[in-house]
């Protein structure tokens, strides 16, 4: 196995943006809202991307989409991810963000494997239609002007329908500022092991812009190993930070000091520190939602992630997962033995649902041609119909 680098890497440049730590928080629906981004930033450094926002919802200025594109004043680099399947609508959404000075970086989602997205031809399904993919990216880059546009994608639909190399070259030709690859197909969902060799292949193929690797980064050591093995210019971290916002502190130490720096500065919180982070997350959610009740509903899904491996009983976990107020949350957290030490391996490794390989939901006859046929083009409007905002 190739050893991890021992010296600090060069800063990551994405258009006019320079990141001294080449780390990006992956957009995650229902997770990477302002509250979670702020919490992660308090521990580390890098680029923190919003949850996915539907282009049509943004163009129609729905209440939810307009709330999701807001950033806290502490977020100096405002990064927004857009999803869409219609070039015109995506370009209009980008134009809105730029004209109203709402973003410093825009990412385009071509990696989502969720059936409700792929069955409309979006997310990881879309690069199969290479011409459509190119139109969307070119239109977004043109509309963005000086604001850098990046793309995040998967290897393809399945092992028989890989798209990442052609899509990567098309995106590079369209003028994107960076390309991120989640090294799984849509059919793999989050199962099995990410194919880091695909990241290396993409890095060898794309020569003019940074290539970022995504998939199975559960620790800072994993991030260093990915860079060493693939040559990628930076890493995108998703599920590995669920319930572990301090991972970004580990990552910053690792990239600034190499493997030895990562080991020396590794954050291993006791139960009291985890409880403090959990409560801080709830407080930030309260600010974001402007509702304590809604914040408490939202924090419930984070309980299992934060307390993974710690000696927290089932009854208490259940109570935390049904909390209705910050006062109740304080009472429950007050019953914990905060001096319980970091449990090691039990708190580490994979988190979040991996799922299992499955046939990807696609529009009828989607795989018959790499180009968009007239009947499919007519259905693009339907594909933009989800105006939920993410």
TrEMBL record:
Keywords: Flavoprotein, FMN, NADP, Oxidoreductase, RNA-binding, tRNA processing, tRNA-binding. Residues 337-367 are annotated as: Disordered. The keyword tRNA processing applies. It catalyses: a 5,6-dihydrouridine in tRNA + NAD(+) = a uridine in tRNA + NADH + H(+); a 5,6-dihydrouridine in tRNA + NADP(+) = a uridine in tRNA + NADPH + H(+). Coiled coil: none annotated. It holds the Pfam family Dus. SUPFAM superfamilies: FMN-linked oxidoreductases. Residues 25-328 form the DUS-like FMN-binding domain. Its cofactor is FMN. Its EC number is 1.3.1.-. Belongs to the dus family. NCBIfam families: nifR3_yhdG (TIGR00737). Catalyzes the synthesis of 5,6-dihydrouridine (D), a modified base found in the D-loop of most tRNAs, via the reduction of the C5-C6 double bond in target uridines. PANTHER family: TRNA-DIHYDROURIDINE(47) SYNTHASE [NAD(P)(+)]-LIKE. This is tRNA-dihydrouridine synthase. It comes from Cryobacterium sinapicolor.
């Amino acid at each position: 196995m190739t050893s991890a680098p021992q010296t600090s890497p060069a800063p990551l440049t994405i258009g006019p943006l320079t990141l001294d730590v080449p780390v990006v928080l992956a957009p995650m629906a229902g997770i990477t809202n302002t509250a979670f981004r702020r919490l992660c930033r308090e521990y580390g450094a890098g680029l923190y991307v919003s949850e996915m926002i539907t282009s049509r919802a943004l163009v129609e200025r729905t209440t939810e989409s307009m709330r999701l594109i807001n950033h806290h004043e502490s977020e100096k680099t405002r990064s927004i991810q857009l999803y869409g399947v219609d070039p015109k609508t995506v370009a209009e959404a980008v134009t809105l963000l730029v004209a109203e000075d709402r973003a410093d970086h825009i990412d385009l989602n071509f990696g989502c494997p969720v059936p409700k997205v792929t069955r409309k031809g979006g997310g990881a399904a879309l690069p199969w239609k290479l011409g459509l993919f190119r139109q969307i990216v070119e239109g977004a880059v043109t509309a963005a002007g000086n604001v850098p546009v990046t793309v995040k994608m998967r290897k393809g639909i399945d092992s028989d329908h890989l798209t990442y190399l052609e899509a990567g070259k098309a995106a590079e030709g369209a003028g994107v500022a960076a390309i991120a690859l989640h090294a799984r197909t849509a059919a793999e969902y989050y199962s099995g092991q990410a194919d880091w060799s695909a990241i290396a292949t993409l890095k060898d193929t794309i020569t003019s812009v940074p290539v970022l690797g995504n998939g199975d980064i559960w620790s800072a050591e994993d991030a260093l190993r990915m860079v060493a093995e693939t040559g990628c210019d930076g890493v995108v971290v998703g599920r590995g930070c669920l319930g572990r916002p301090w991972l970004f502190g580990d990552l910053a130490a690792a990239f600034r000091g190499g493997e030895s720096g990562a080991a020396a500065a590794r954050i291993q919180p006791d139960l009291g520190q985890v409880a403090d982070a959990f409560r801080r997350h709830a407080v930030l959610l309260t600010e974001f939602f402007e509702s304590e009740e809604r914040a408490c509903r939202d924090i419930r899904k984070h309980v299992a992630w934060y307390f993974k491996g710690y000696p927290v009983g089932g009854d208490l976990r259940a109570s935390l997962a049904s909390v209705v107020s910050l006062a109740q949350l304080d009472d429950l957290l007050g019953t914990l033995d905060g001096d319980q030490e970091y449990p090691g391996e039990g708190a580490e490794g994979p988190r979040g649902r991996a799922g299992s390989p499955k046939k990807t939901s696609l529009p009828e006859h989607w795989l018959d041609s790499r180009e968009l046929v007239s009947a499919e083009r007519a259905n693009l409007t339907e594909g933009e119909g989800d105006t939920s905002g993410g």
